[in-house]
Write the structure tokens for this entry.
Amino acid sequence: MYSFEQLKVFVTVCECGSFSAAARKLKRAQSGVSQSVSNLEIALNQTLFDRSGNWPVLTAAGSALLPMAQSVLLQQLRLDQKVMALDADEEHDLIIAMDESLIEPQLLSRLAVLAEQFPMTQIEIVSASTFDIRTLISEGDAHIGVVFADGTMLEEAEFRSLGYSRFVTLAAPSHPLAQKTSVTDTDLRTYRQVVHRSSTGKELWFSYAISTQVWYANTHQLLLDLASEGIGWAIVPDKLAAPYLANGRLTELNVEYEPEGWVTTVDVIESRQYAGGPVHRAVLKLLNEAFEQHRL
């Protein structure tokens, strides 16, 4: 009978491309990895790899069984996560990761009640970009994340929509684009763009670089400051931009193909590796209440 460990080794060899690379990833001896795969082949009565060359190549049987092995391991992961959740009966800490542009004073005021409601729970609030937060959740380094939707699903997380956020296109009043009554796509491509990009080089689906001249920043606050200096135009959350528009440091551009701005979904994602308790549930309730005004 084969084991979960043997399936894990098999899948890892496929992902890494060699027994030696899989051994390094699994922190095991290469001989142990090779033996584990051989034992799996015996248990299944199938040859999984062609070992005649320098690198192991999946056989037809191996190719057919790989997606099934991956599915079994995913189900095992979900079972383990569920058991962990059932075993845990109290929370000692909770890490909330939020996209930096979604952290507002009103939201922090709501979260402040947790200090009195759960005085013995250590709460950490992390400010990061949406993509970096997805990594934190995926790797179990944060329990709850508040992010902009990007159309991807995380196997390690649950998600639900909280509301919507509107993004606007801005430039300094002295910028040539600010002098136009209507701005076209060609106009935007002509001038330097200041783009939000995560630490891993990812950009949001509606504000990625389209100009041939680009500056990057990893926070929307930096985008506002750079744009207000006349360096280029930028797409930023309207609530974050409001003070800059009010004091005249920035001007909203009338983009002809998106006159109302860009509207994107705000999601809350929850790590399946974490056993949610009363504090977790309280945070979700507060977030849901805080974003009521952001729903269409």
About this structure: The two ends are 54 Å apart (CA to CA). The CA atoms of residues 37 and 226 lie 55 Å apart. The domain at 93-163+264-294 is CATH 3.40.190.10 (D-Maltodextrin-Binding Protein; domain 2).
